[in-house]
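Hi R.,

Here are the chain sequences for the assembly we discussed:
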Amino acid sequence: MKRSSQPTINDVARIAGVSKKTVSRVINQSPLLNGDTRKRVEEVIADLGYVPNPQARALALRRNFLIGLIHDNPNAQMVLNVQQGMLEVLRDTEFELIVHPVNRGSPTMLADIGQFLERQRPFGVMILPPISENDQLAALCAEIGVRYVRMGSAPLDDAPHMVASNDREAVHGAIAHLIESGHRRIGLVLGPHGFRSAHERQKGYEEAIERAGLPLQRTLIVQGDYKFESGMRAAEQLLDLAPRPTAVFASNDEMAAGVLHVARQRGLNVPQDLSIIGFDDTPIASHLWPPLTTVRWPIATMARAAALKLLSGEGGAHSEDGEASLFVSTLIRRASVAPAAG
Amino acid sequence: MKRSSQPTINDVARIAGVSKKTVSRVINQSPLLNGDTRKRVEEVIADLGYVPNPQARALALRRNFLIGLIHDNPNAQMVLNVQQGMLEVLRDTEFELIVHPVNRGSPTMLADIGQFLERQRPFGVMILPPISENDQLAALCAEIGVRYVRMGSAPLDDAPHMVASNDREAVHGAIAHLIESGHRRIGLVLGPHGFRSAHERQKGYEEAIERAGLPLQRTLIVQGDYKFESGMRAAEQLLDLAPRPTAVFASNDEMAAGVLHVARQRGLNVPQDLSIIGFDDTPIASHLWPPLTTVRWPIATMARAAALKLLSGEGGAHSEDGEASLFVSTLIRRASVAPAAG
DNA sequence: CGACCGTTTGATACCGGTATCATAAGCATA
DNA sequence: TATGCTTATGATACCGGTATCAAACGGTCG
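And here is the predicted structure of the full complex:
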């Protein structure tokens, strides 16, 4: 049975014998309404199965109820966790989430996003790393007048709009854990150049090494790009060194999986011959053999916080005040770390 | 510099010295327009940076330009691939994608979705497995009058609205591959009860076994639920059998990873002692050691097809005609299969 | 020259809500 | 009874687009 067309506020008004405005008052829970009238209108609404038209509402109110999610993120799990976290917050509101992935590296990327923002004029947008590090994008949001929140690995220079984790400290802790276990030659697989998260993780490594009084050896630090294959290439380079590192920290789980992969190929036992730590705590980390010690950052929690920040009006397009929300990542100890041999 | 408010069609009309309707004609590329007028209006539009308000448009046209994506899917990679595929199609249109994950098992799930559909009245929705198998949901879409497309493992009984893969044949092929490699005792880890995909994959297994003239042994078939841990439990059961199966087909990669995990724990070599095949070709499949032989189904392609089907008006809410779009899954041979020993 | 025709444009109503402001009703007070 | 105040409701305009239909215009033809 198809209802040929939805009832409108006019139908409700006519049937209930009141004006549109009164119905509007009922919908919006205006306090200055006679109880009887309200009840009568509510009955008619329930009767007809009336649902207000969000487009009309948006037009009249000169604002809409869309929250955008902009990302160029290759990590599916992370994107989905973010969506989940945001939707938990949006669920009981009238807001809807509209996703807008973009092509990293496309020369028209900013223009594309600009078009999206101009067209939809979303109430606010959430921007995921790595594109959240792009200051031009933030400027664009401000210019167009769309409130925004950036998720990242550090507060950048835009604290009012940041929801950030403390990658640096977390990595510091992870490396310290390796050092406590007796490791002295610890390889580092970097994230891609130009990524703040990669930078933060590197700093965490360097701080931990220095604080322990160990030498910072360039040969132990290898470039990667957050992808599995780059983890493999990095591992080949690291495991060719003599003496070999006894542990490797990879800047994300995927690369850590690549390192593990190569270690396997070479007949090394993990963790006896080589300890490995990753970052992100994606599902792959717990599914690998051995299960991967890694750093978990509270993505869903951060996403919820970001959504709340957007809705609460903090992080308005131009606000200069407000603090970054900071979240703590924690080391998840599994079976890929053992005391250093010898 | 924030533009305090966006120019409207009235501003354009006033400045260009024409009526609203003429501007509207320019926007909608109406053919019956004088070239000069068009040019003049276009200049003003460019000048002001005018962008039509989608809400007002939606209201006037009594339709909107939203495509919903409904899913209760735990597989992040798959959801993201679908989003990507759909957005490729939507990119050059005026449609926007709005995602609506739901909680599988929540008793209010259908009501939630109904509310979503009533409120937003999206132009169309795409429904992912496993919830795409829910006929009540399809009926709900039809009742509300929202066109829909269901993605699934078989055409179900709703061909006009289906975009389906051929899981049964694909699994048949995978098992045949094992049999050709000399395997005779092949374990099967089922997907969760009540899932069409699980059913189809089981049928594919059974057909292949029977066609090869092998006996169908109940003990070789173990229940799973598509999660890693259930793969582990299933593997424990299977590897306790005497004689042990020499190969296992798991109904998805995650469970295959669980099987591999347990095989490792027991000191079995994969693939020498045990061959394993998964299903889905998620990234984990290629990252495991050894890389997993698995079945790849063309998710992004299917998603594109589904989006086109929605936009093209096929699969209207009540259409009885139209064919299911069928897509071929293929076996990706990696290193987790070896000839049966002995 | 006037009737007729096709092309181009505009006046106005309308989509389904909300905001403004006026008005009606109820009641206390003078 | 008249006055003023509060509370409940409605008439109307408006948000920014599109649709309908009429009108203006220029040219052709009898």
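Chain A touches chain B through 54 residues (CB under 8 Å). The CA atoms of residues 249 and 277 of chain A lie 5 Å apart.

Let me know if anything looks off.

Best,
T.
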